[in-house]
Write a structure and sequence with these properties.
The chain is α/β, with parallel strands linked by helices. It folds into two domains: 14-45; 50-197, Beta-carbonic Anhydrase, Chain A (3-Layer(aba) Sandwich), CATH 3.40.1050. The chain has seven helices and five strands. It has a five-stranded mixed β-sheet with strand order 2-1-3-4-5. α1 (16-47) crosses α4. The longest helix is centred in the N-terminal third of the chain and has 32 residues, at 16-47. The termini are far apart. The relative contact order is 0.15.
Length: 203
């Protein structure tokens, strides 16, 4: 006599109705995730409606406080309002020099990726580049002789600020641009500001 026994397989234990409900739930979740991804750039842009610019500055520790103070208060020729909490920031050795000088080839890719992200996320409309006097990165890029000669030093910063303007106009033609040079006074404080490339005042 042969005995036949039915064995239930646990891997198919989900009833058809329950399986269909799980499938529908997954599809709803996937659809919701898709909508979230699609709306993310729009939401980020909306959140950035009060932002104005990105600041490009150097890593030199001596310049962090004076540049922040300049950004956070109105500055004639640059911004008519204090920009505290209204700007994103990219910091790299040399500021504009670090983006365009051949000695630092390869660094620029990260900068362009970041400014593109800030345009998308924060809705910025301007780039403010701030180079500074006695910048070691300038010496690396163009030699100690250039760094030690005030006229050559300023000319090198001006040339690179203009190169950055040309590249920005090609990549982001709708973005305003201004470049500045801050140098030390007789006491070594960075508070002597000069315009390298003038641009629309931010308000």
């Amino acid at each position: 006599m042969r005995i036949t026994q039915t064995v239930a397989c646990s891997c198919h234990a989900v009833a058809p109705r329950q399986h269909e409900l799980q499938r529908r739930g997954f599809l709803r979740l996937a659809a919701a995730a898709g909508v979230g991804v699609a709306l993310a750039p729009v939401a980020g842009r909306a959140q950035g409606k009060e932002y104005r610019s990105m600041l490009l500055s150097c890593v030199d520790p001596r310049t962090q406080t004076p540049i922040a103070a300049w950004m956070n208060a109105p500055a004639a020729g640059s911004h008519a309002i204090g920009l505290d909490g209204k700007y994103s920031q990219f910091t790299v050795a040399g500021a504009a020099v670090g983006i365009v000088a051949p000695a630092f080839a390869g660094w620029e890719a990260t900068f362009w990726d970041n400014i593109g992200a800030s345009i998308q996320l924060h809705g910025i409309t301007a780039l403010i580049a701030v180079d500074h006097g006695n910048c070691g990165a300038l010496g690396i890029a163009y030699g100690q002789r250039v760094l030690d000669d005030p006229k050559l030093e300023l000319a090198a910063h001006l040339a690179d600020a203009k190169k950055l303007k040309e590249e920005l106009a090609f990549r982001h033609p709708d973005l305003d641009y201004q470049a500045w040079f801050v140098d030390r006074d007789s006491n070594g404080r960075f508070n002597q500001w000069k315009t390298l490339v003038a641009g629309p005042e931010i308000s």
